From TrEMBL:
Native source species: Fontibacillus solani
Record GO terms (molecular function): ATP binding; iron-sulfur cluster binding; metal ion binding; nitrogenase activity
Superkingdom, taxonomy of origin: Bacteria
PROSITE patterns: NITROGENASE_1_1, NITROGENASE_1_2
GO CC annotations on file: molybdenum-iron nitrogenase complex
Keyword vocabulary terms for this entry: ATP-binding, Iron, Iron-sulfur, Metal-binding, Molybdenum, Nitrogen fixation, Nucleotide-binding, Oxidoreductase
Name of the protein this chain belongs to: Nitrogenase protein alpha chain
Assembly: Tetramer of two alpha and two beta chains. Forms complex with the iron protein (nitrogenase component 2).
UniProt-listed Enzyme Commission number(s): 1.18.6.1
UniProt catalytic activity: N2 + 8 reduced [2Fe-2S]-[ferredoxin] + 16 ATP + 16 H2O = H2 + 8 oxidized [2Fe-2S]-[ferredoxin] + 2 NH4(+) + 16 ADP + 16 phosphate + 6 H(+)
Entry-linked InterPro entries: Nase/OxRdtase_comp1 (IPR000510), Nase_comp1_asu (IPR010143), Nase_comp1_CS (IPR000318), Nase_Mo-Fe_asu (IPR005972)
Known function: This molybdenum-iron protein is part of the nitrogenase complex that catalyzes the key enzymatic reactions in nitrogen fixation.
Enzyme class, broadest EC rank: oxidoreductase
Length: 483
């Protein structure tokens, strides 16, 4: 066994040592160290995932409401999404995901607004259904161009047994627009992942297939599971269109309810975030016979590979166009790599991101010569881990739902040069003197998808690592001053 593998196994042991025996045993099952390069070793599929977080361990996961309201439904821009329940959930999830959308705010685009039913004690005691009716009427009056409403349940709604389905049905009839009740109370499931599933099911039951396209064509595709974070879906769509494909729906970044209603007319579903939207692809395949294809638009290597896989599904014209698109951007991509690779070569990266990007962004880092020494997910399932293992090099640590303590220890023991995770983690790493990039919201940057996105990705990673600020500060623990 190579020394690196042994060293990393030892590091995990040491970190878990502080836990009581039972917790230690449990957390250990959420770690694997890769024994060979890029190999799917099925014994490694044993890594535990999608189960309850260990009580007492500070998980960085979110909840079902986050998965439904924040992720799947929130980006549908011409609907008003009600955060139904106490104000906190709406307030704290307001605008933080940076899912961009075109349109006039408050007129035909409501993504950057936060509408909450602001539950008070009386609503908990007497129920919030009456209030919900009033809110629906007010929305119709204030935003006449809103094409629909979704009711995103927060925990108390489920606990007190409100009948949001009945309200939705009644108000939909009264107001003449679709009103969708979504049972995404935060306590459901073990993470935001069940929220994705519940949100997908609500789309299936209330929206999918409810409208027809005027004209259909042989090159009609849907972009599924791109939420347009910092403009990601726009940077992706442009490549598909240059190739000659017609994108009839974007789910759900910068998407409209009509796109969701007519998406069943596509010839092919292109799915980027498998974790959050695979359910819809399955449903569309079963009900409408639409096949789906997974793709990865992070970094030129994966983008080129994906463009060719997509083109292979179509005729010679598209295949030829695909090569032209690749040739058009290749020079630009080579120049980006020539500029940044010498500055980033060999830098060690650790990632801990949601349910997709912990594997999808690896190629982009590797295009810049950077090395992934540890990666992991908050809420991935077994199928995600099976897809991740072949992307990893020998001795890389793979982890599931690690708590804040485990991550901080790992970062120090692996002596990483860059950490990629979320805003909850960010400032701790800055205090430790470790460069950090937010890999959920792209900090205040983006897009990172496609060729246009890679230019920004490379610049941002360089900016984080090469900033002169790291030479000016010493982490508080190194200078003996308590922060
Ligand atoms: Fe999909 Fe996402 Fe992700 Fe995700 Fe998320 Fe996100 Fe994510 Mo944050 S839908 S699984 S629930 S790619 S919000 S845009 S970055 S954890 S890795």
């Amino acid at each position: 066994m190579s020394t690196d593998i042994m060293k990393n196994k030892q590091i995990i042991e040491e970190i878990l040592e502080v836990f009581p025996d039972k917790a230690k045993k449990d957390r250990k099952r959420h770690y694997e160290v890769m024994e060979e390069d890029n190999k799917l070793d099925c014994s490694k599929c044993a890594i535990k995932s999608n189960i309850k977080s260990r009580p007492g361990v500070m998980t960085i996961r979110g909840c079902a409401y986050a998965g439904s309201k924040g992720v799947v439904w929130g980006p549908i821009k011409d609907m008003v999404h009600i955060s139904h329940g106490p104000i906190g959930c709406g307030q704290y999830s307001w605008g933080t995901r940076r899912n961009y959308a075109n349109g006039s705010l408050g007129v035909d685009n409501f993504t950057a607004m936060q509408v909450s039913s602001d539950f008070q004690e009386t609503d908990i005691v007497f129920g919030g259904d009456k209030k919900l009716e009033v809110i629906c009427r007010e929305i119709k009056e204030m935003f006449p161009l809103a094409k629909g409403i979704s009711i995103q349940s927060e925990c108390p709604v489920g606990l007190i047994g409100d009948d949001i389905e009945a309200v939705a049905k009644k108000m939909s009839k009264e107001l003449g627009i679709p009103i969708v009740p979504v049972r995404c109370e935060g306590f459901r499931g073990v993470s935001q992942s069940l929220g994705h599933h519940i949100a997908n099911d609500a789309i299936r039951d209330f929206i999918m297939g409810r409208a027809e396209l005027k004209e259909c064509g042989p090159y009609d595709v849907n972009i599924i599971g791109d939420y347009n974070i910092g403009g990601d879906a726009w940077a992706s769509r442009i490549l598909l269109e240059e190739m000659g494909l017609r994108v009839i729906a974007q789910w759900s970044g910068d998407g409209t309810i009509n796109e969701v209603m007519t998406a069943h007319k596509a010839k092919l579903n292109l799915i980027h975030c498998f974790r959050s939207m695979n359910y819809m692809c399955e449903v569309m395949e079963e009900e409408y016979g639409i096949p789906s294809l997974e793709y990865n638009f992070f970094g030129p290597t994966k983008t080129i590979e994906s463009l060719r896989t997509i083109a292979a599904y179509f005729d010679e014209t598209i295949k030829e166009n695909c090569e032209k698109v690749i040739a058009k951007y290749k020079g630009e991509m080579d120049a980006v790599i020539a500029k940044y690779r010498p500055r980033l070569e060999g830098k060690k990266v650790m990632l801990l991101i949601g349910g997709l990007r912990a594997r999808h962004t690896i190629g982009a880092y590797e295009d810049l010569g950077m090395e992934i020494v540890a990666t992991g997910y908050e809420f991935a399932h077994k199928d995600d881990y099976l897809k991740t293992i072949p992307e990893l090099k020998q001795a890389t640590i793979l982890m599931d739902d690690p708590g804040a303590y485990e991550l901080e220890e790992l970062a120090q023991k692996l002596d990483i040069d860059l950490m990629g995770a979320g805003v909850k983690e960010k400032y701790v790493y800055h205090k430790m003197g470790i460069p950090f990039r937010q890999m959920h919201s792209w900090d205040y940057s983006g897009p990172y998808h496609g060729f246009d996105g890679f230019k920004i990705f490379a610049r941002d990673m360089d900016m984080a690592i090469s900033s002169p600020v790291w030479k000016l500060l010493k982490a508080p623990d190194k200078v003996g001053v308590m922060a």
